[in-house]
Design a protein that fits this description.
Length: 242
Amino acid sequence: MNAPSIYVGDTSKGTITKFHEDGCSTVVTTGLNGPSGIILDGLGNLLYVANSGGGTIEKFDLSGNRSTFASSLNKPMGLALDRSGNLYAASGGGGTIEKFDSSGHKSTFASGLGITNPYLAFDGGGNLYASNTHTVEKIAPNGTRTTFLNFFGDSVYGLAFDCCGRLYVGLQNAGAIYGLPRNGLFASDNASTFTPAGLAFDRSNGHLYAAFGQSVRKYHLDGCGTVFASGFTSAQYIAAFP
């Protein structure tokens, strides 16, 4: 497999930075207004970024050329792509999840969510999972919604599936990442300093990356973690390819 590339959005600086596994980095773009969700298409040829403050979703090709994929949105934040190439965007302002086909045509996929800082992830069966304040919501391909997990007061942020179909959840108040269905603590730290936000797995070696504040941590399968990158102002969303 190809060596993974890790993309990190700094919401305060308005930048997207690409990192290689050895930590070398290049700035993909600057001048964004609160970049949030980041996702790459299945071939790694296109990068989509939720430009939350501007109400748009921006698209970048491998050369860094930028175009606006969707506009007039209400604080788009978490992004996810299904296997058919449809893009899903969670609204931090409207409690909805919008679905876009490859041409940019929009339809509302889910509504009535109390999401303020939403993250999205698909499982292998095509079900979409959304962080919803203190719960993880599961939304079937037909739009049927159920509460999959309830963390009873802890703030649910990042979501990511590994190659074996296990879901990992970042909990801000606990300063921890939980791995499911093992129902076990995957990683933790001092809750005052470790507040995991965006999560992403690379499919080359199974490492889990967690963005939080000024740093990104890299975890091995045994849960041991190290600082992968630092110097951010507000790193909250992250993507990996492959």
